[in-house]
Amino acid sequence: MTTHVFEPPHGGLDAGRWPDVAAVPRCSPARYALAHAIVRRALRGLPLSVRWGDAGRTDAERLGRGGPSMAVRAPDAFVRRIAVGGLIGFGESYLAGEWEADDLVGVLGVLAGHAATLVPAPLQRLRGVWAPRQPGAQRNTLTGARANIHRHYDLSNDLFALFLDETLSYSSAIFDRSPGSWRELPAAQHRKIDRLLDLCGVTRGSKVLEIGTGWGELAIRAAARGAVVHSVTLSAEQRELARERVRAAGFEDRVRIELCDYRQVTGRYDAVVSVEMIEAVGAEYWPAYFRALETLLAPGGRVALQAITMPHDRMRASAGTHTWIQKYIFPGGLIPSLRAIEETAAAHTSLRVTACEGYGPHYAATLRLWRERFAQQAEWVEELGFDATFRRMWSFYLAYSEAGFRSGYLDVHQIQLVAARPAGPGTPTNGGPA
Protein backbone atom coordinates (compact mmCIF):
# COMPACT_ATOMS: atom_id res chain seq x y z
CA MET A 1 0.00 0.00 0.00
CA THR A 2 1.37 3.41 -0.97
CA THR A 3 0.95 6.07 1.70
CA HIS A 4 0.65 9.70 0.62
CA VAL A 5 2.74 11.88 2.91
CA PHE A 6 0.51 14.67 4.18
CA GLU A 7 1.60 17.87 5.87
CA PRO A 8 -0.96 19.28 8.36
CA PRO A 9 -2.11 22.72 7.17
CA HIS A 10 -1.83 24.38 10.59
CA GLY A 11 1.86 23.71 11.11
CA GLY A 12 3.83 21.14 13.04
CA LEU A 13 2.22 19.13 15.79
CA ASP A 14 3.73 18.88 19.25
CA ALA A 15 4.02 15.10 19.44
CA GLY A 16 4.65 15.23 23.18
CA ARG A 17 1.44 17.17 23.82
CA TRP A 18 -0.66 15.43 21.12
CA PRO A 19 0.81 11.92 20.66
CA ASP A 20 -2.33 10.32 19.22
CA VAL A 21 -2.84 13.18 16.77
CA ALA A 22 0.78 13.23 15.61
CA ALA A 23 0.99 9.48 14.94
CA VAL A 24 -1.25 7.72 12.42
CA PRO A 25 -2.02 4.25 13.88
CA ARG A 26 -1.24 0.98 12.15
CA CYS A 27 -3.89 -1.65 11.52
CA SER A 28 -4.15 -5.01 9.81
CA PRO A 29 -4.92 -5.13 6.06
CA ALA A 30 -8.25 -6.83 6.80
CA ARG A 31 -9.33 -4.18 9.30
CA TYR A 32 -8.21 -1.43 6.94
CA ALA A 33 -10.17 -2.95 4.03
CA LEU A 34 -13.33 -3.26 6.13
CA ALA A 35 -13.06 0.32 7.42
CA HIS A 36 -12.32 1.62 3.92
CA ALA A 37 -15.43 -0.08 2.55
CA ILE A 38 -17.67 1.15 5.40
CA VAL A 39 -16.40 4.75 5.26
CA ARG A 40 -16.76 5.08 1.50
CA ARG A 41 -20.17 3.41 1.52
CA ALA A 42 -21.37 5.81 4.22
CA LEU A 43 -20.01 8.91 2.47
CA ARG A 44 -21.54 7.91 -0.87
CA GLY A 45 -25.01 7.78 0.65
CA LEU A 46 -24.90 10.98 2.69
CA PRO A 47 -26.16 14.44 1.67
CA LEU A 48 -22.57 15.73 1.53
CA SER A 49 -20.19 16.84 -1.22
CA VAL A 50 -17.00 14.92 -0.43
CA ARG A 51 -13.69 15.35 -2.22
CA TRP A 52 -11.72 12.16 -1.61
CA GLY A 53 -8.04 12.86 -2.17
CA ASP A 54 -5.39 15.53 -1.66
CA ALA A 55 -6.37 18.90 -3.12
CA GLY A 56 -3.11 18.89 -5.10
CA ARG A 57 -3.98 15.71 -6.98
CA THR A 58 -6.03 15.61 -10.17
CA ASP A 59 -7.51 12.16 -9.51
CA ALA A 60 -9.49 13.10 -6.38
CA GLU A 61 -12.89 11.39 -6.34
CA ARG A 62 -16.26 12.93 -5.60
CA LEU A 63 -18.52 11.16 -3.13
CA GLY A 64 -21.89 11.97 -1.59
CA ARG A 65 -25.29 13.13 -2.79
CA GLY A 66 -24.63 16.85 -2.54
CA GLY A 67 -24.68 19.13 0.47
CA PRO A 68 -22.09 20.66 2.81
CA SER A 69 -18.56 20.21 1.48
CA MET A 70 -15.97 17.95 3.08
CA ALA A 71 -12.45 17.43 1.76
CA VAL A 72 -10.64 14.25 2.84
CA ARG A 73 -7.10 15.34 2.04
CA ALA A 74 -5.28 12.29 3.42
CA PRO A 75 -7.61 9.31 2.78
CA ASP A 76 -5.18 6.61 3.92
CA ALA A 77 -4.60 8.24 7.32
CA PHE A 78 -8.30 9.10 7.63
CA VAL A 79 -9.34 5.47 7.11
CA ARG A 80 -6.65 4.04 9.37
CA ARG A 81 -7.62 6.34 12.23
CA ILE A 82 -11.28 5.35 11.92
CA ALA A 83 -10.35 1.66 11.60
CA VAL A 84 -8.48 1.78 14.90
CA GLY A 85 -10.31 4.46 16.89
CA GLY A 86 -13.77 4.86 15.38
CA LEU A 87 -15.17 8.30 16.15
CA ILE A 88 -12.11 9.14 18.26
CA GLY A 89 -10.02 8.53 15.15
CA PHE A 90 -12.40 10.64 13.08
CA GLY A 91 -11.90 13.59 15.45
CA GLU A 92 -8.14 13.08 15.68
CA SER A 93 -7.98 13.06 11.90
CA TYR A 94 -9.54 16.52 11.90
CA LEU A 95 -7.07 17.76 14.51
CA ALA A 96 -4.25 16.47 12.31
CA GLY A 97 -5.63 18.41 9.34
CA GLU A 98 -6.35 15.28 7.30
CA TRP A 99 -9.84 16.45 6.47
CA GLU A 100 -11.45 19.88 6.25
CA ALA A 101 -14.89 21.44 5.92
CA ASP A 102 -15.88 24.98 4.97
CA ASP A 103 -19.09 24.48 6.98
CA LEU A 104 -17.94 22.24 9.82
CA VAL A 105 -21.25 22.47 11.68
CA GLY A 106 -23.11 21.51 8.51
CA VAL A 107 -20.93 18.45 7.88
CA LEU A 108 -21.07 17.31 11.49
CA GLY A 109 -24.83 17.90 11.54
CA VAL A 110 -25.30 15.53 8.59
CA LEU A 111 -23.18 12.90 10.32
CA ALA A 112 -25.05 13.34 13.61
CA GLY A 113 -28.41 13.09 11.84
CA HIS A 114 -27.37 9.75 10.31
CA ALA A 115 -25.43 8.42 13.33
CA ALA A 116 -27.65 5.36 13.72
CA THR A 117 -27.01 4.14 10.15
CA LEU A 118 -23.40 5.10 9.41
CA VAL A 119 -22.18 1.67 10.54
CA PRO A 120 -24.01 -1.43 9.25
CA ALA A 121 -26.41 -2.98 11.79
CA PRO A 122 -24.38 -6.21 12.33
CA LEU A 123 -21.31 -4.16 13.31
CA GLN A 124 -23.45 -1.85 15.46
CA ARG A 125 -24.48 -4.91 17.46
CA LEU A 126 -20.80 -5.79 17.92
CA ARG A 127 -19.91 -2.27 19.08
CA GLY A 128 -18.81 -3.59 22.45
CA VAL A 129 -16.16 -5.70 20.72
CA TRP A 130 -14.57 -3.13 18.39
CA ALA A 131 -15.21 0.21 20.08
CA PRO A 132 -12.58 1.57 22.53
CA ARG A 133 -13.56 1.19 26.19
CA GLN A 134 -13.60 3.97 28.77
CA PRO A 135 -10.37 4.06 30.78
CA GLY A 136 -10.74 2.97 34.39
CA ALA A 137 -8.77 6.05 35.42
CA GLN A 138 -11.70 8.24 34.33
CA ARG A 139 -14.21 6.68 36.76
CA ASN A 140 -15.90 9.35 38.84
CA THR A 141 -14.74 8.23 42.24
CA LEU A 142 -14.22 10.99 44.78
CA THR A 143 -10.66 11.47 43.55
CA GLY A 144 -11.41 10.65 39.90
CA ALA A 145 -14.23 13.18 39.64
CA ARG A 146 -11.97 15.96 40.89
CA ALA A 147 -9.29 15.03 38.35
CA ASN A 148 -11.84 14.89 35.52
CA ILE A 149 -13.26 18.31 36.38
CA HIS A 150 -9.77 19.77 36.74
CA ARG A 151 -8.84 18.74 33.19
CA HIS A 152 -11.59 20.87 31.65
CA TYR A 153 -12.69 23.60 34.02
CA ASP A 154 -9.26 24.49 35.38
CA LEU A 155 -7.76 25.14 31.95
CA SER A 156 -7.87 28.91 32.50
CA ASN A 157 -10.55 31.33 33.65
CA ASP A 158 -9.15 33.75 31.08
CA LEU A 159 -9.73 31.24 28.27
CA PHE A 160 -13.41 30.85 29.11
CA ALA A 161 -13.83 34.61 29.53
CA LEU A 162 -12.68 35.10 25.92
CA PHE A 163 -15.72 33.37 24.41
CA LEU A 164 -18.41 33.49 27.12
CA ASP A 165 -20.52 36.58 27.70
CA GLU A 166 -20.24 38.85 30.73
CA THR A 167 -22.34 36.50 32.91
CA LEU A 168 -19.69 33.76 32.43
CA SER A 169 -22.50 31.25 32.00
CA TYR A 170 -21.24 28.01 30.41
CA SER A 171 -24.59 26.38 29.68
CA SER A 172 -27.53 26.87 27.34
CA ALA A 173 -29.22 30.24 27.33
CA ILE A 174 -32.95 30.67 26.64
CA PHE A 175 -33.69 33.36 24.07
CA ASP A 176 -36.96 35.19 23.53
CA ARG A 177 -36.70 33.63 20.13
CA SER A 178 -34.03 31.55 18.42
CA PRO A 179 -31.52 32.17 16.94
CA GLY A 180 -30.22 34.94 19.17
CA SER A 181 -27.48 37.54 18.88
CA TRP A 182 -24.45 38.23 21.05
CA ARG A 183 -26.14 41.38 22.35
CA GLU A 184 -29.06 39.25 23.60
CA LEU A 185 -26.93 36.55 25.24
CA PRO A 186 -26.57 37.99 28.78
CA ALA A 187 -30.33 38.51 29.07
CA ALA A 188 -30.93 35.03 27.65
CA GLN A 189 -28.60 33.54 30.27
CA HIS A 190 -30.46 35.37 33.03
CA ARG A 191 -33.75 34.11 31.59
CA LYS A 192 -32.41 30.55 31.84
CA ILE A 193 -31.29 31.08 35.45
CA ASP A 194 -34.56 32.75 36.48
CA ARG A 195 -36.62 29.88 35.08
CA LEU A 196 -34.56 27.38 37.06
CA LEU A 197 -34.90 29.41 40.26
CA ASP A 198 -38.66 29.66 39.66
CA LEU A 199 -38.81 25.92 38.99
CA CYS A 200 -37.43 25.12 42.44
CA GLY A 201 -39.31 27.96 44.15
CA VAL A 202 -36.41 30.17 45.22
CA THR A 203 -37.57 33.29 47.02
CA ARG A 204 -36.57 35.48 49.96
CA GLY A 205 -35.35 33.31 52.83
CA SER A 206 -34.95 30.15 50.75
CA LYS A 207 -32.05 27.90 51.67
CA VAL A 208 -30.52 26.90 48.33
CA LEU A 209 -27.94 24.28 47.40
CA GLU A 210 -26.25 24.63 44.02
CA ILE A 211 -24.33 21.59 42.78
CA GLY A 212 -21.82 22.87 40.24
CA THR A 213 -20.96 26.54 40.83
CA GLY A 214 -19.67 27.53 37.43
CA TRP A 215 -18.45 31.10 37.80
CA GLY A 216 -21.15 32.09 40.26
CA GLU A 217 -23.87 33.79 38.22
CA LEU A 218 -26.74 31.60 39.46
CA ALA A 219 -25.64 31.96 43.09
CA ILE A 220 -25.52 35.75 42.69
CA ARG A 221 -28.95 35.81 41.08
CA ALA A 222 -30.43 33.62 43.81
CA ALA A 223 -28.89 35.82 46.51
CA ALA A 224 -30.41 38.87 44.83
CA ARG A 225 -33.81 37.26 45.45
CA GLY A 226 -33.00 37.11 49.16
CA ALA A 227 -31.97 33.45 49.27
CA VAL A 228 -29.07 32.00 51.23
CA VAL A 229 -26.90 29.90 48.91
CA HIS A 230 -24.46 27.07 49.50
CA SER A 231 -22.70 26.32 46.21
CA VAL A 232 -20.25 23.45 45.67
CA THR A 233 -17.74 22.85 42.90
CA LEU A 234 -14.72 20.66 42.16
CA SER A 235 -12.95 23.36 40.15
CA ALA A 236 -10.46 25.40 42.16
CA GLU A 237 -10.18 28.04 39.42
CA GLN A 238 -13.94 28.46 39.18
CA ARG A 239 -14.31 28.73 42.94
CA GLU A 240 -11.67 31.46 43.12
CA LEU A 241 -13.27 33.64 40.44
CA ALA A 242 -16.82 32.90 41.60
CA ARG A 243 -15.92 34.11 45.09
CA GLU A 244 -14.49 37.31 43.63
CA ARG A 245 -17.67 37.89 41.63
CA VAL A 246 -19.89 37.21 44.65
CA ARG A 247 -17.82 39.68 46.69
CA ALA A 248 -18.05 42.31 43.94
CA ALA A 249 -21.83 41.86 43.82
CA GLY A 250 -22.09 42.44 47.57
CA PHE A 251 -23.45 39.01 48.52
CA GLU A 252 -20.64 37.52 50.62
CA ASP A 253 -23.05 37.28 53.55
CA ARG A 254 -25.55 35.22 51.52
CA VAL A 255 -23.35 32.96 49.35
CA ARG A 256 -20.88 30.31 50.50
CA ILE A 257 -18.84 28.56 47.81
CA GLU A 258 -17.06 25.37 48.79
CA LEU A 259 -14.66 23.01 47.04
CA CYS A 260 -16.68 19.88 47.71
CA ASP A 261 -18.10 16.80 45.98
CA TYR A 262 -21.89 16.47 45.92
CA ARG A 263 -21.49 13.17 47.82
CA GLN A 264 -19.89 15.02 50.73
CA VAL A 265 -22.50 17.74 51.21
CA THR A 266 -24.60 17.66 54.38
CA GLY A 267 -27.66 19.59 55.52
CA ARG A 268 -31.19 20.11 54.20
CA TYR A 269 -32.22 22.68 51.61
CA ASP A 270 -35.50 24.16 50.39
CA ALA A 271 -34.20 24.11 46.82
CA VAL A 272 -31.48 22.13 45.08
CA VAL A 273 -30.40 23.33 41.66
CA SER A 274 -27.82 21.86 39.30
CA VAL A 275 -27.07 23.14 35.81
CA GLU A 276 -25.56 20.75 33.27
CA MET A 277 -23.66 18.87 35.94
CA ILE A 278 -25.32 15.45 35.68
CA GLU A 279 -23.45 14.92 32.41
CA ALA A 280 -20.20 14.76 34.43
CA VAL A 281 -21.51 12.25 36.98
CA GLY A 282 -21.26 9.07 34.88
CA ALA A 283 -23.91 6.35 34.67
CA GLU A 284 -22.23 4.30 37.40
CA TYR A 285 -22.86 7.13 39.86
CA TRP A 286 -26.33 8.31 38.79
CA PRO A 287 -27.99 6.38 41.67
CA ALA A 288 -25.67 8.06 44.20
CA TYR A 289 -26.35 11.45 42.61
CA PHE A 290 -30.14 11.14 42.88
CA ARG A 291 -29.92 9.72 46.41
CA ALA A 292 -27.85 12.75 47.39
CA LEU A 293 -30.45 15.09 45.85
CA GLU A 294 -33.24 13.39 47.80
CA THR A 295 -31.35 13.35 51.10
CA LEU A 296 -30.36 17.00 50.84
CA LEU A 297 -33.89 18.18 50.06
CA ALA A 298 -35.98 19.51 52.94
CA PRO A 299 -39.60 18.34 53.18
CA GLY A 300 -41.66 20.20 50.58
CA GLY A 301 -38.55 21.28 48.70
CA ARG A 302 -37.91 21.02 44.97
CA VAL A 303 -35.02 20.08 42.70
CA ALA A 304 -34.36 21.89 39.41
CA LEU A 305 -31.93 20.37 36.94
CA GLN A 306 -30.79 21.59 33.57
CA ALA A 307 -29.52 18.58 31.66
CA ILE A 308 -28.25 17.87 28.17
CA THR A 309 -30.01 14.74 26.94
CA MET A 310 -29.80 12.29 24.06
CA PRO A 311 -32.11 9.54 22.74
CA HIS A 312 -32.20 6.51 25.03
CA ASP A 313 -31.13 3.99 22.38
CA ARG A 314 -28.12 6.11 21.39
CA MET A 315 -27.19 6.59 25.05
CA ARG A 316 -27.25 2.83 25.60
CA ALA A 317 -25.21 2.24 22.45
CA SER A 318 -22.47 4.64 23.57
CA ALA A 319 -22.46 3.82 27.30
CA GLY A 320 -19.21 2.15 28.31
CA THR A 321 -17.35 3.11 25.14
CA HIS A 322 -14.72 5.82 24.96
CA THR A 323 -15.64 8.82 22.81
CA TRP A 324 -13.70 11.75 21.36
CA ILE A 325 -15.48 14.15 23.72
CA GLN A 326 -14.50 12.03 26.72
CA LYS A 327 -10.89 11.70 25.60
CA TYR A 328 -10.27 15.35 24.79
CA ILE A 329 -12.97 17.53 26.39
CA PHE A 330 -15.01 15.97 29.23
CA PRO A 331 -13.29 12.90 30.71
CA GLY A 332 -15.61 10.58 32.59
CA GLY A 333 -18.79 12.18 31.26
CA LEU A 334 -21.93 10.64 29.79
CA ILE A 335 -25.00 12.47 28.51
CA PRO A 336 -28.16 10.83 29.91
CA SER A 337 -31.51 10.32 28.27
CA LEU A 338 -34.71 11.65 29.81
CA ARG A 339 -35.78 8.06 30.31
CA ALA A 340 -32.57 7.30 32.20
CA ILE A 341 -33.14 10.30 34.48
CA GLU A 342 -36.71 9.29 35.23
CA GLU A 343 -35.94 5.60 35.69
CA THR A 344 -32.85 6.14 37.87
CA ALA A 345 -34.66 8.59 40.13
CA ALA A 346 -37.66 6.25 40.44
CA ALA A 347 -35.56 3.15 41.08
CA HIS A 348 -33.33 4.64 43.78
CA THR A 349 -35.31 7.48 45.38
CA SER A 350 -38.78 8.86 45.91
CA LEU A 351 -37.98 11.75 43.52
CA ARG A 352 -40.32 12.06 40.57
CA VAL A 353 -40.16 14.30 37.50
CA THR A 354 -43.06 16.75 37.78
CA ALA A 355 -42.16 19.24 35.03
CA CYS A 356 -39.89 19.10 32.00
CA GLU A 357 -39.29 21.44 29.07
CA GLY A 358 -36.79 21.21 26.22
CA TYR A 359 -34.74 24.02 24.64
CA GLY A 360 -32.52 22.27 22.10
CA PRO A 361 -32.61 25.00 19.40
CA HIS A 362 -31.60 27.56 22.04
CA TYR A 363 -28.47 25.56 22.82
CA ALA A 364 -27.60 25.44 19.13
CA ALA A 365 -27.88 29.25 19.06
CA THR A 366 -25.81 29.60 22.25
CA LEU A 367 -23.06 27.39 20.87
CA ARG A 368 -23.02 29.28 17.57
CA LEU A 369 -22.32 32.50 19.46
CA TRP A 370 -19.57 30.89 21.54
CA ARG A 371 -17.99 29.32 18.46
CA GLU A 372 -17.98 32.60 16.53
CA ARG A 373 -16.58 34.45 19.52
CA PHE A 374 -13.85 31.84 20.02
CA ALA A 375 -12.81 32.19 16.37
CA GLN A 376 -12.66 35.97 16.73
CA GLN A 377 -10.45 35.65 19.81
CA ALA A 378 -7.94 33.19 18.28
CA GLU A 379 -5.01 35.58 18.70
CA TRP A 380 -5.77 36.04 22.40
CA VAL A 381 -6.21 32.29 22.91
CA GLU A 382 -2.72 31.85 21.48
CA GLU A 383 -1.43 34.58 23.81
CA LEU A 384 -2.70 32.51 26.75
CA GLY A 385 -0.40 29.68 25.63
CA PHE A 386 -2.85 27.39 23.83
CA ASP A 387 -1.28 26.01 20.66
CA ALA A 388 -2.78 25.65 17.18
CA THR A 389 -3.88 22.05 17.79
CA PHE A 390 -5.73 23.05 20.96
CA ARG A 391 -7.48 25.87 19.12
CA ARG A 392 -8.47 23.49 16.34
CA MET A 393 -9.68 20.96 18.93
CA TRP A 394 -11.79 23.56 20.75
CA SER A 395 -13.34 24.78 17.50
CA PHE A 396 -14.18 21.18 16.61
CA TYR A 397 -15.72 20.62 20.06
CA LEU A 398 -17.97 23.69 19.78
CA ALA A 399 -18.99 22.83 16.20
CA TYR A 400 -19.54 19.16 17.14
CA SER A 401 -21.81 20.18 20.00
CA GLU A 402 -23.72 22.75 17.95
CA ALA A 403 -24.29 20.17 15.21
CA GLY A 404 -25.68 17.75 17.77
CA PHE A 405 -28.36 20.22 18.84
CA ARG A 406 -29.13 21.43 15.32
CA SER A 407 -29.67 17.86 14.11
CA GLY A 408 -31.85 16.93 17.09
CA TYR A 409 -29.37 14.26 18.19
CA LEU A 410 -28.97 16.25 21.43
CA ASP A 411 -31.47 18.26 23.46
CA VAL A 412 -31.38 20.21 26.71
CA HIS A 413 -34.14 20.16 29.33
CA GLN A 414 -35.05 21.98 32.49
CA ILE A 415 -36.47 19.38 34.87
CA GLN A 416 -38.31 19.71 38.16
CA LEU A 417 -38.23 16.84 40.66
CA VAL A 418 -40.11 16.53 43.94
CA ALA A 419 -40.09 13.81 46.58
CA ALA A 420 -43.13 11.57 46.63
CA ARG A 421 -42.43 11.00 50.32
CA PRO A 422 -40.37 13.09 52.76
CA ALA A 423 -36.80 11.92 53.24
CA GLY A 424 -36.50 10.50 56.74
CA PRO A 425 -33.49 10.39 59.05
CA GLY A 426 -32.68 6.87 57.91
CA THR A 427 -32.62 7.64 54.20
CA PRO A 428 -29.28 6.60 52.72
CA THR A 429 -27.21 9.58 51.67
CA ASN A 430 -24.46 8.53 49.35
CA GLY A 431 -25.23 4.97 48.35
CA GLY A 432 -23.42 3.41 45.41
CA PRO A 433 -19.77 3.18 44.51
CA ALA A 434 -17.31 5.83 45.61
Task: Give the domain tally.
Answer: 2
> What CATH architecture of the largest domain would you give?
3-Layer(aba) Sandwich
CATH class of the largest domain: Alpha Beta
Query: What is the number of helical segments per DSSP (H or I, 4+ residues)?
Result: 19
Shape: globular
Tell me the strand percentage band.
Answer: 15-25%
Per CATH, the superfamily of the largest domain is: Vaccinia Virus protein VP39
The third-level CATH topology of the largest domain is Rossmann fold
The Rg value, from CA coordinates, equals 23 Å
Count of beta strands: 11
Report the mean per-residue pLDDT as an integer: 91
Q: Any low-confidence stretches, pLDDT <50, length ≥5?
A: 1-7, 423-434
Helix content: 40-55%
Strand order of the largest sheet: 7-6-5-8-9-11-10
Distance, first to last CA: 49 Å
Give the H and E element order. Answer: HHEEEHHEHHHHHHEHEHEEHEHHHEHHHE
Give me some keywords for this one.
434 residues; alpha/beta; Rossmann fold; 2 domains; 7-stranded mixed β-sheet; 11 strands; globular; disordered N terminus; disordered C terminus
Describe this structure as you would to a colleague:
With about 425 residues, the protein is α/β, with parallel strands linked by helices. The chain folds into 2 domains: about 20-130, no CATH class; about 140-420, Rossmann fold (3-Layer(aba) Sandwich). It is about 45% helix and about 15% strand. The protein is built from 19 helices and 11 strands. The protein has helices spanning about 20, 30-45, 75-85, 85-95, 105-115, 120-125, 125-130, 140-155, 155-165, 185-200, 215-225, 235-250, 285-295, 310-320, 325-330, 340-350, 360-375, 380-385, 390-405; strands spanning about 50, 60-65, 70, 100, 205-210, 230-235, 255-260, 270-275, 295-310, 350-360, 410-420. α17 runs antiparallel to α19.
